[in-house]
Design goal:
Strand order of the largest sheet: 4-5-3-6-7-9-8
Shape: globular
Number of helices: 14
Radius of gyration: 21 Å
C-alpha cells in the first residue's frame, strides 16, 4: 500500500507499507494535459472499459468512478496481497487482451507451455505479472498508459496525454466516509451541469450500477452497508440528494460567494448542497477519515521515516455535518469552490 503525505510546501514522502498486512481504499484523480477537454463520449466509453479491465487484471476493486471531458476520478479498494495461482494469472492476462493479435496469442501459448514445465522463464513471467498486481500505482499507470496508446493512435497524435502523476487520497474504509466520497465522485456530472441526477450519466459508477451492471453494484455493496441493492441504493440516494429530498439540483446549488459567507459566519449547509461544490479536501487532503484514522496514518509515517513534523489531523470547516471527518493536509486557499 502506498500513501503520499505532504510534509512541507515543496516536498512529499511516499511510504510503501507491507501489502501482505494492509488493505486500503483510495480516491484517485488525474487530468489531461493543460486541462484540455479531449475526451468525447467514444473516448469516455473506451476509458470506462479499460478501467474495469485493468482493475480485474491488477486484482483491485473499483467502488465507483466518474469520467469527465478533461479528467477522471476513481474510488478503488486495494486488498491484501495473497497467493495468485498460475490459472488466475493466465485469466487476468487474457483480460487485458480480449481480442489478441496473432503475436499475443502465440506469446500466451508459449507462456502456458513454460508454466506447465516450470521453466525459468515461467518464474520471470510470474514475477513480472505479480509486480503489477495488488498495488495502486501500477493500476493507475496501466490505465493511463493503455488509454494514452489508444487515444494517440486513434487521433493521430503523439506525446503525453496526462498532465501529471495522479493525485491520491487514502480514505478510511468506513461506510459513512466511503459514502460521502463516493457521492462526491458520482456528482461530478451534476456539478458540471451535464445532468441533474448522476443515474443519468453513463460514465460514472452510479449510472452504470442503476443500469444493471452487477460489477458496478458490487462496488456500492462496499460503500453502503446492509440489505439488498434496492435498499442500499435508497440509502445512497439520501447521501446524493438529502433525506426526503425529491428536488434534483443541477450544478452547484450555492454560489462561491454565498458559500464563503456561510464559512465566515460559521453556518451550516445541507450535505447534499455542499457535495455539489468542489471540495479540494477530497482530492488534496492526503488522508480522509476519522481523527483516529488520520492520526494513526500520521503516526505510521513518522515511525517509518523517523521524521518529526508539525502536521496534525485537521478538521474540515464545518459547513456541513461531516461527523468526525478529518483530513491530514490543511488547505490554505480555496478548500471549497
Amino acid at each position: 500500500m502506498e500513501i503520499c503525505f505532504g510534509v512541507g510546501p515543496m516536498r512529499q514522502a511516499r511510504i510503501k507499507l507491507d501489502a501482505e498486512k494492509e488493505e486500503a481504499v483510495y480516491h484517485c484523480m488525474t487530468r489531461t494535459v493543460n486541462g484540455e477537454r479531449l475526451l468525447d463520449d467514444v473516448a469516455k466509453e473506451v476509458l470506462r472499459k479499460q478501467l474495469w479491465q485493468v482493475a480485474d487484471y491488477c486484482g483491485v476493486q473499483i467502488l465507483t468512478y466518474a469520467i469527465m471531458a478533461n479528467h477522471f476520478h476513481v474510488l478503488v479498494r486495494v486488498p491484501r496481497k495473497g497467493v495468485v495461482s498460475d490459472t488466475e494469472l493466465l485469466r487476468r492476462y487474457g483480460v487485458l487482451y480480449p481480442k489478441p493479435t496473432k503475436y499475443q496469442a502465440g506469446r500466451l501459448a508459449a507462456v502456458r507451455a513454460q508454466l506447465e514445465t516450470n521453466e525459468p522463464e515461467a518464474e520471470d513471467w510470474r514475477n513480472r505479472q505479480l509486480a503489477l498486481m495488488g498495488d495502486l500505482s501500477p493500476f493507475m499507470r496501466l490505465v493511463k498508459q493503455r488509454f494514452s496508446t489508444w487515444f494517440n493512435r486513434s487521433h493521430q497524435r503523439y506525446g503525453t496525454l496526462w498532465s501529471e502523476r495522479f493525485k491520491s487520497v487514502l480514505v478510511e474504509a468506513k461506510s459513512g466516509v466511503l459514502g460521502t466520497m463516493a457521492a462526491y465522485i458520482d456528482l461530478n456530472a451534476v456539478r458540471a451541469g451535464l445532468v441533474s441526477d448522476p443515474k443519468d450519466y453513463r460514465f460514472c459508477g452510479y449510472g452504470e450500477a442503476v443500469a444493471g451492471s452487477v460489477v458496478a453494484q458490487a462496488g456500492y455493496c462496499q460503500v453502503v452497508e446492509g440489505g439488498s441493492w434496492a435498499d442500499r441504493q435508497a440509502r445512497y440516494r439520501e447521501t446524493l440528494f438529502g433525506k426526503g429530498a425529491g428536488v434534483k439540483t443541477a450544478k452547484a446549488s450555492i454560489s462561491v460567494e454565498a458559500f464563503k459567507q456561510v464559512i465566515e459566519a460559521k453556518g451550516r449547509l445541507p450535505m447534499a448542497a455542499v457535495l455539489r461544490c468542489r471540495i479540494r479536501y477530497f482530492s488534496d487532503g492526503a488522508v480522509l477519515g476519522s481523527q483516529a484514522f488520520v492520526q494513526t496514518q500520521l503516526g505510521l509515517y513518522q515511525r517509518l521515516t523517523g521524521r518529526r513534523t508539525r502536521t496534525v489531523p485537521r478538521e474540515i470547516p464545518r459547513v456541513a455535518d461531516w461527523g468526525d471527518l478529518t483530513t491530514l493536509r490543511g488547505l490554505r486557499q480555496g478548500g471549497f469552490g
